[in-house]
Amino acid sequence: MVLVNDVLELPRSPHAEKVTLVNTVPSAMSALLQTGLPSTVRTVCMAGEFLPTELVNRVYAAGVERVFDLYGPTETTTYSTCALRLPGAAATIGKPIANTRVYLLDENLSEVPPGAAGEIFIGGDGVTRGYLNRPELTNERFVILPAIEPQGRLYRTGDWARQTRDGSVVYLGRRDQQVKLGGHRIELGEIESVLRDSSGASDVAVVLQKRDAGDTLVAFVAEREEGQINSKDCIAALRARVPAYMVPSLIVPVASLPRTLNGKVDRKVLSQMREADATPTREAPRDLLEQWLANIWAFRLGKKEIPRDADFFDDLGGHSLIAFEVFTDIELQMGVAMPLATLFQTPTVELLAKAIRRLNWNEPKHITFIAPGSSQKVIYLIGHQPAGLPESLSSSGARVMAVKGGSSADDLTDSIREIAMIEPARPPLVLTTVGVRSKEIRKIASALSHAGFADVSLPS
Description:
The protein is α/β, with parallel strands linked by helices. It has five domains: 1-71, Rossmann fold; 95-180, Luciferase, domain 3, CATH 2.30.38; 182-270, 2-Layer Sandwich (GMP Synthetase, Chain A, domain 3), CATH 3.30.300; 288-357, Non-ribosomal Peptide Synthetase Peptidyl Carrier Protein, Chain A (Orthogonal Bundle), CATH 1.10.1200.10; 378-457, Response regulator (Rossmann fold, 3-Layer(aba) Sandwich), CATH 3.40.50. Helices cover 27% and strands 21% of the residues. It has a five-stranded mixed sheet, with helices on one face. Strands 6, 7, 8, 9 and 10 form a five-stranded antiparallel sheet that branches. Strands 17-16-18-19 form a four-stranded parallel sheet, covered by helices on one side. The chain is elongated.
C-alpha cells in the first residue's frame, strides 16, 4: 500500500510503477490523468462525488482495465453500494454490497416503485450506532422502521436516487437540492442526470435563480474537451425525458464549475451568476413593432435586451407561463389578440412581428422609431421636436425616439401613457414645451410622475 499526501503526487512516488489499484475521488482522478497515471494501474475505484461517464471513458482510455463506482456515507462504514462502470454506459452506483440493504423511500417513508425518485435509506451490518454524545442528531438520522427493515434500524442519507428494473441504483443528488417552482417539487439532481447523459459533460449543476421576472431554473454545463456544448440539443433531450416544468430556462456552458474549499460544487455562487455571454450577439430590432415586442419580452423574461432573431424558448429560456403573460401584454398594449400557439410557430420577435402585421395592425402615428446604436441610451422627445437637440443630448450619442403629439396637455399625456406601456425601463424623458402653456406643463409633469418616470428635464 502506497500512501501519498495528495493523489497528484503519485507519479513522483518512488513506488509509482508498482501500484496496480488507485482509490480516490473523481475530481482528483481527473487531475491525475493530466499529470500522468502510472502505467501499471489496472483498477481504479472512485467515491465521494458523482462519477460522470465522460471521466469513466477517459480512465479506460488511459489503459485501466476496471473502473468501480463506490457509494456510501461514513455512517454506514464507508461503502454501501458498488458498480463496475463500463465505457459509455449510463451512470449508476450499482447494488448493495454483502450484508447491506438499500431502500428508496418517499416523504411518507414508503418504498417508491422502480424509476421513481426517493431518498436513500441504508440498513445492514455496516450501519453505525450513532453520533458520539449527540443523541438528538442520532435520533434524526437513524430511524427505526421494522415494517421495512427486518433489523429495524436504517440510516437516512439525505441523498436522492432512483432504481432501475434490474435493481441498480442511479444517484440523483442531495435531498437539500430539492426546490419548489410553480407549485412543483423538483429534484435538481434528476435534471443533472439527464444533462450528463445527453451532453457527455464532465460537470453539470442546476440551480434555482431568483429574478425580478420570477424564479427560474438555470443549468450550468462544463464544456467538454472535444467540443462545445450544444444548448439546443440539451433542451431537446430534457423535453423528451422530464416534465416541462423541470426543463431549465437556460443552459449556460462554462469552462468549469465553481467549487468550495472541500471540492464540492459551490451552488451559492451559481445561484447568483448571470448568463452575460450565454446568448450570442444577434440583430437588434429594426422597427417600432419589433422594438415594442422586444420590450415586452425583456420585461417578462427579466433581460436587458432581446435580439430580433433570438428564439423565445431555446435561446431566451421562455416557457408557457411566461408566454401567456407576454400575449396578455400584447393584447393590452397593442390591441392584438392571438392564440398562444402562435408563439410556437413564430418564436422570434421578427417572426411574431410579421404575424401581427398580417392581422392589419395599425401602427401608432405619433411614435417614430429610430434604430439604436450599439451602446446608446434611449431618450424620448415628447411634443414638438425642436429644430436642433440641446448640446448636452447631441454630444451624448443617445438614441432619440421622437413622440410627435399635439401641443395640448391631453395629447401629450396620452403619448406618455403609451411610452409607459412599451418601455418598462422608464428611460429619461425630454419634454419640449413649444406651444404648451405653463399650466399644461404642470399637468404633463404630473402625468410623467404617475407613469413612473423619475428623471425628467423640461428645456425651455
